[in-house]
Amino acid sequence: MPDDNGASEQRTQESRMLDRHPGLRDSVASLPEFIAWNDSFPLVEVDAESFRVARGDQLMDRDQMMVEWIRLFRPQLFEEGAENDR
Questions:
Q1: Are 77 and 28 in contact (CB under 8 A)?
Q2: Distance between CA atoms of residues 13 and 67, nearest Å
Q3: Rounded Cα distance, 70 and 86, in Å
Q4: Which 3 state secondary structure label does DSSP give 14?
Q5: For a Cys staple, 67 with which of 6, 14, 22, 28, CB 3.0–4.6 Å?
Q6: Burial of 52 (0-12, 13-18, 19+ CB in 10 A)
Q7: What's the CA gap between 61 and 74, in Å, rounded?
Q8: With 60 as the cut, is the pLDDT of residue 81 above it?
Q9: Which has the closest alpha carbon to 77: 23, 16, 35, 36?
Q10: What is the pLDDT of residue 83?
C-alpha cells in the first residue's frame, strides 16, 4: 500500500543515493557492461512498473540494479563521488 508521506519517501534508498552523484546514473546506464548485466535478469511488469528479478526472487527497479552493479563491479564510482562531495 502506498505511503502518504510524499513522493520523496516512496523513492528507494538507491534512487536517493544516485541523486547525490550527479551524472553517475546516465554514465552507468550507457556502459555496455552494465547493459549486458542488467539485461541478463528477467524483466517483469507490476502495476505498470518494470522490475528485474535478481538475488533469487527479489524485484529490483533500474536504480536498484544500477547500485547493485556499481557495488559488485565498480565500487570506486561511489568512492570518487564521495571525494567530490567534500
A1: yes
A2: 10
A3: 21
A4: helix
A5: 14
A6: buried
A7: 19
A8: no
A9: 23
A10: 52
Estimate to the nearest angstrom the gap between the alpha carbon of 82 and the chain centroid.
17
For cell 535478469, name the residue. 41
Using CB atoms within 10 Å of the CB of residue 66, give its burial: 0 to 12 exposed, 13 to 18 middle, 19+ buried: buried
Q: Is the pTM of this model over 0.85?
A: no
Q: Which residues lie closer than 8 Å to 56 by C-beta, 6 or more apart?
A: none
Residue 21 DSSP symbol: S
Tens of pLDDT, residues 36-70? 999 999 999 999 999 999 999 999 999 999 999 99
Contact 11, 20 (CB under 8 A): no
CA R_g for the chain: 14
Say which DSSP state 4 is in.
S
Quote the CA–CA distance of 28 and 72 in Å, as a whole number.
13
